[in-house]
Amino acid sequence: MGEIKILGIVGSLRKNSYNRFALKAAHELLPEGAMLGLVELHGIPIYDQGTELTPPPAVVEFRRRILSADAILFATPEYNYSVPGCLKNAIDWASRPYGESAWAGKPAAVMGVSIGSLGTARAQYHLRQILVALNMPTVNQPEVMIGNAERRFTEDGKLTDEPTRKQLQKLLLALTVLVKSSRAD
Length: 185
Prior knowledge:
Blueprint: E1 4-10, H1 18-28, E2 34-39, H2 57-68, E3 71-75, H3 85-94, E4 108-113, H4 121-133, E5 144-146, H5 149-152, H6 162-184
Parallel strand pairs: 1-2, 1-3, 3-4, 4-5
């Protein structure tokens, strides 16, 4: 079957984002036979339908990375009870032009980290609604909502909370199982 290529999308532009740290932790916790690459959203301009047929180079590269992956792992912070604008913008770019979505049928998993106690619950539920519209089969359980981030990560970004590491490991395993079942169809 070959190695499963997962593309981790950092849903934050912040340099020391806890969501970037969580994706780096995911890299350490991958099941055998899986690999994880990260993509940043820096440089992706605001979506403009007038240019979707000739997208900017950053968008072309973003779409290429999505299309070459077997699965997507979204790591989203929560801004104003929803996903950050940069993440929604990138999702919109890759879904266009109509009928040529890079997301269609791509297995996905969602996680998120925040300094608050809810751990991005509302943002994740909004993102899941978007993924339904994009026809992306998504891991339902476990839900990885990492709250109180400063207690779970060291200052240099290492995930030290063992129960959180185990949940993340379960999510990654569920994603690889979803990819394998998608391949069997």
